[in-house]
Each structure stands twice: as C-alpha cells, then as structure tokens.
C-alpha cells in the first residue's frame, strides 16, 4: 500500500479492520513521514517512536483476535504538548517545563491509550497556549505546510500542521479562545471545540480554567466525530465535567453528509464580518452560506451586539486566570530551576527561574492579570469583564432562540507571514475575534475548510456554532458543507495543498 498517510483516519481504521494493513505498518508510515518533513514543518516537539510502535503492536494483537478496543484502535495520533502524557515530556511549549516528564496521564491521554491509538508524539504550541501563530513557543515556530514562510495558527499550530502535512491523521488540540479552530482554518483542517465540560480537563495544563476545552484536529468531519466520541464524556476528576452522555456525533455526520439541511435555521452573525476581515475570506464565507441555502437551510442575519466587546473581556478574564494558574511554576515543584550565585533565598530562586523560564507573552499576561485582579482595580477590570461575559452569553441565548446554528468566518485572515504580528500583540489577538465569543459562553464550535482565498491561495475556514450540549449540530452542518464543497472541488481540500519538499 503506497501512501497510507494520505488516508483519513476512518479509511485507516477500515483497512485495519479488514486486516489489509497492520497498525505497525500505519504507525511506521507516519513516523517515516515525520522523519521526512518535520525538519521543515516543526510540528513536533517530541516524537515517541518506541512507544508508538509498542502501542501499534498491542493494537495488532487485539485486531487479529477481532477484539478492537475502539473504532479507532490502531490509528496513530499526535497530542498537543499541553496535555500531560505519562512518561513523555510535556512542556506546554515553555522553557519552564523543559525536562519535566509527567508521572500521570491526562484523562484524554488515558482514553486515547484505552482506545488503542498509538501516540506518535507531542506537538508544538505557543507557550502555555498564549498566541495565534506558535511563534511564542520556546522551541521555535511551526511552519504552515501550505507555505512554509507562514504561520500555522495558534496556539495549536503544531497539531494542525501535523495533520495538514500528513504526519498524523488525527491530533488533539485545546481551545481557550480559538486555539483549535483558528489553526484549523489557516491550515485547511477540521477543528472542533466541544461544549465546555464535554471533554475532561484533568491533566490539561491550565491556561484559563473557565475557558479551556480539548478537542479533535482532523482532516474530515467524520474523523473528528470518531475522535470526539472517544475522548468525550463524564470524568469525576474534573469538577466542571458534564454528566451528559456524548451525543451521537458519527450519526450526525452521516445525516449531514447526505447534504440535506431542510428545516435547519442558520444565523449569519452580523458583527463577525466587514472591517478587518480579508476580502478573500469574506468571499469564501458568502459562498458557503449560499451552499447552506442550496441545501435547504433557512438563512437569516442575526445581531450579537456585545460580541464587539468580547475580545476586551477575554483579555482581562484570561490573564487573570492565567496569572493565578502560572503561580504554580515556582522552581520548587516542576521543571526548570535557576539558582543565582551567592546565597540566594527561595524567593531569589523563584524570581530567577520565572525570569528565565517564561517568555515575553507569558510575562505580559501575568502582569496584566495580576493588575486586573489587584485590590482597588478588581471591580473596574475583572468585575466589568465578567459582566460583559454575561452579556455575550445572553446574545447567544437570544440568537439561539431564533436559529439552530450560527455561522461566521473562523479567522478574519488567512495565514500571515511568520514574524508579521510579533511586534503588535493586539493585531495577533484580533485573529481570535470570531472564535472567542464561543469560549466566553461555553458553546461548541467547529471550523471546516471552505476553500482558498483568491488573493493568496491559502485556506479559509467556516465556523459553525451551536448551543451548549448541541455539538451534534456542528457535525451535521459541518458534514453537509464538507460534502457539498468536495463535490465542487472534486475531492478533499488538502489535496490542493502544494506538495512539501521531502527533505530534512
Ligand atoms: N489559547 C487560545 O485559545 C489562543 C488565544 N489565541 C490566546 O492567545 O489566548
């Protein structure tokens, strides 16, 4: 079998089930692909060849007995470095966790292992998930497989690039303000942020607890549904974990793929377009909306007037939570320890370690958050931001009283050149203008490829948002759009990506 890495995860699982390929062959094919292209892409911070092959052997054993552990048993996966993995380094893209090997697995990791998926390695990310380009990784940026001089999005640029470059058919991402969806949009991959609480946060190195959510990064909507069903569901170790059963997502994909959306009410969010949105992004978005209409959906415009303040509220709430979370990196418990010369006090060691271990963006947010929470400013900043958060939630409630799903472009622009926004944090933050409202309200969102922009030939994503716990609607609509667009393109969008130079 020649190019196993080009197959979707579902196709790989089918070949495993019929015995046409083994998990060892599949895993080896992806490890070879990583060896060939990751020198240029830099999607991985750590590759676990030995562990992946061991897990593949165990999968082959189960498969040969006709006892698969899950529908994805034996299909390899990559995991964002913010999710802890027992025995495998987990740095969250930070110098401060360099060399730390967790003694336990995150619940997501546990479920992947129990499902039989060989873990290929850990993917690159902006430090502690702060960023939209992976340029804030302490270990150097990831490059977009569509154009190596451009960003793959962030913070989960490594996961998205690994999937887009055929280094892994599946990956895990985390989304606090858009870190799964925006990388998905700019690399032509599918990214899902589930309903808050739908996937356990146990073992996810926290950025902002009230916003963080782990989810699938894949090349097709069906693959995302298969992975989401595997990692989702209640976990008593996460106090915010939902007790609901996982909705029937694969079934929703099958329903959507038939391309009939009659009876579905779709709202186009008026505030998520216009100024700041690239013309080619808006053109692809308008086309996707037409497709939805052609498939029988009723499309109306809805207004969410408080969304314009969502970014500002996020940049008070997130730094506040992050400054408190990152206090645990104190040189005493994990990773790096820098000991200044002389007779340093414990505080001197902490100061020196945090100075050397955190990058500029992390320091910026710790300072912002500490200030926003400080006595005398708390009400004016953190308190006000929480009020805006409530107003954003009410905008969603009002919108979902009228429509079943909301749509917008995922990201206002296509992938920008590396280095372009590093000196202008606000313009970097604006990448998440369309994705942040969902995190503030805890609602689920998906980004599906919707073509390439005319001006630069780079991928554009369509975002679909649904009410809390209605993740199945994302999959139904996402699968319909995917099927209709593939008909138009004559195949998957990633097939249009330029071939990477295979060299190290
Ligand atoms: N973590 C995220 O979801 C990314 C967002 N761009 C941030 O910088 O916070």
State the main characteristics.
single chain, Amidase signature (AS) enzymes, 504 residues, alpha/beta, eleven-stranded mixed β-sheet
How many domain units?
1
Order of helices and strands: HHEHEHEHEHEEHHEHEHHHHEHHEEH
Poorly predicted parts:
none
Radius of gyration: 21 Å
Average per-residue pLDDT, rounded, comes to: 96
Which homologous superfamily in CATH is the superfamily?
A: Amidase signature (AS) domain
Distance between the termini: 24 Å
Largest sheet: 11 strands, mixed
CATH class: Alpha Beta
**Total beta strand runs:** 11
Strand content: 5-15%
Number of helices: 16
Helix content range = 25-40%
Q: CATH topology, anyone?
A: Amidase signature (AS) enzymes
Query: What strand line-up does the widest sheet have?
Result: 1-3-2-4-6-5-10-11-9-7-8
Tell me what the CATH architecture is.
Answer: Alpha-Beta Complex
Helical/strand content category: alpha/beta
Task: Please state the overall shape, judged from the principal axes of the Cα atoms.
Answer: globular
User: What ligand species are in this complex?
Assistant: asparagine
GO molecular function, one term: ATP binding
Organism: Nocardioides mangrovicus
Subunit structure: Heterotrimer of A, B and C subunits.
InterPro entries: Amidase, Amidase_CS, Amidase_dom, AS_sf, GatA
